[in-house]
Amino acid sequence: MRIRKFTFKFFARLCLYLQTMLSDALLQHIEREFPHAFTPLQHEAAEALSRFVMSGARRPAFLLRGYAGTGKTSLVAALVRTLRAIGRPVCLLAPTGRAAKVFSHFAGEKATTIHRTIYRQRTFNGEDTGFDLGFNKLKDAVFIVDEASMLSIGVELNSPFGTGHLLDDLVSFVYQGTGCRLLLVGDRAQLPPVGEEESPALCADVMSAYGLTVSEANLTEVVRQDEASPVLLAATQLRLAMYTEPDTPPRIASGGPRGQLQFLPGNELIEALVSAYSDMGANETIVVVPSNKRAIVYNNGIRARIFDREDELTRGDRVMAVRNNYYWPEQWKSGLSKEETARLPFSFIANGDTAEVVRIRNIHEQHGFRFADATLRFPDYDEFEMECRVMLNTLTSEAPALTQEESRQLYENVLADYADIPSRRERMKRLREDPYYNAVQLKYAYAVTCHKAQGGQWARVFVDQGHLGIEPTGLPYLRWLYTAMTRTTDRLYLVNWPEAQRETS
């Protein structure tokens, strides 16, 4: 018995020793891949990440929380390069196509949306098409999810995806694989999911409730090399105010050697937007506003005054899908081989996906609504192009998409076309396959709400807080402003910014 106990203890100590050696070697590799010398907090985080990767714990998970400018992005990129170098499988995920594109850029590896990776489509059935949770075939893979603050724990009503609980499904998928583990990366100062006070995916208690062994690290110190950025200084100021002076209106200072943060009067807005579109292009320019109503005002004004567009939809227009659409990707792939289908960037057009109109034709009215046939180019999916029928009514509607009444009207009017078919089952089948019933619902995408912008980055960002309906104080407002301001990679414009919120030198 004593020999057995001794053998067990020896074996356990040996395993611990080997694990420590491997973790130390991994840490050294991460440090070599990191572009600067570690700060103490960065070193602690890298050390904890090394232990996590080599951990033999049951269902290991890691929460890497970091504010803007703390080196979180660089640390994750160094970890990804290290994992690739040692031959460890790694899967990069993000909540949206735009966020996945940003993640791919800084990590140097292909990233995809969570939905595309973890779900598989059932047999196509029009609008009623559903997606089942797929099977994770990877072994010892590290799944890294960026912008995890956007993940909701709540159920998405009438969701065609899995259980309707994205976070639940993500955890289930990852830990199907032998030895797989989950790294969630995010910023707790950003907006939480709609209806949530905090970001559940970045909360250790929430993730532990899934039966995970949770480790965590927090990057809070702004790195020295970035301190000259006025945007970063303002973001840091806002983040600190969240916990010290949330009821005091924040005062922002402009400046920077290249004018990275500017206060912009309304009478100079058009000129600044024209310059941004000329210098960076429409895909790298965005206006962030507090409401859909405000977005409509901006979108209509930009199209009319800058691009001189009078028609409802023209070539070059930037648009955003406002409802998931499964029909047109399925139609597009119907003539492709299995190999070609596997290379498609997405199996459905997601709510929030942005596109450029390449060609527009056959504008017409049908079933009480206006439609057009369009070729759309998706910049966040390797410039992929797809032909589809689009609905024009939603472009300027104040509603997020077709209202319940409008959806019912479309349903009844399209169904009436098949009234001569005796079988109700066949009538419904024809309805689900109807191109008008499945038209892509779009809005212009020159200006978006902060929730729509979250997870994305643009070179030139214009923020107009407009009339928020609330005082510019409190945690929700500070998170809104912090999230909006940190969308830029080059220059930030605060439009019609109140004098009371300007820092005077």
Describe the 3D structure.
Mean pLDDT is 88; it is low at 14-18. Helix content is 36%, strand content 21%. It is globular and about 80 Å long. 41% of the residues are buried. It contains 16 helices and 18 strands. The chain has helices at 2-33, 40-54, 72-85, 97-107, 114-118, 166-174, 204-208, 230-244, 269-280, 292-305, 327-333, 338-342, 404-416, 424-432, 450-453, 475-485; strands spanning 60-66, 90-94, 111-113, 119-121, 131-133, 142-145, 181-186, 213-219, 261-264, 285-289, 318-321, 354-366, 369-378, 384-391, 440-444, 447-449, 458-463, 488-495. The protein has a 6-stranded parallel β-sheet with strand order 3-2-6-7-1-8. Strands 9-18-17-10-16 form a 5-stranded parallel β-sheet, sandwiched between helices. It has 505 residues and is an alpha/beta fold. It has 2 domains: 2-223, Rossmann fold; 228-501, 3-Layer(aba) Sandwich (Rossmann fold).
Write the layout of secondary structure elements.
Elements: H1 2-33, H2 40-54, E1 60-66, H3 72-85, E2 90-94, H4 97-107, E3 111-113, H5 114-118, E4 119-121, E5 131-133, E6 142-145, H6 166-174, E7 181-186, H7 204-208, E8 213-219, H8 230-244, E9 261-264, H9 269-280, E10 285-289, H10 292-305, E11 318-321, H11 327-333, H12 338-342, E12 354-366, E13 369-378, E14 384-391, H13 404-416, H14 424-432, E15 440-444, E16 447-449, H15 450-453, E17 458-463, H16 475-485, E18 488-495
Parallel strand pairs: 1-7, 1-8, 2-3, 2-6, 6-7, 9-18, 10-16, 10-17, 14-15, 17-18
Antiparallel strand pairs: 4-5, 11-12, 11-15, 12-13, 13-14
Helix pairs in contact: 1-2, 1-3, 8-16
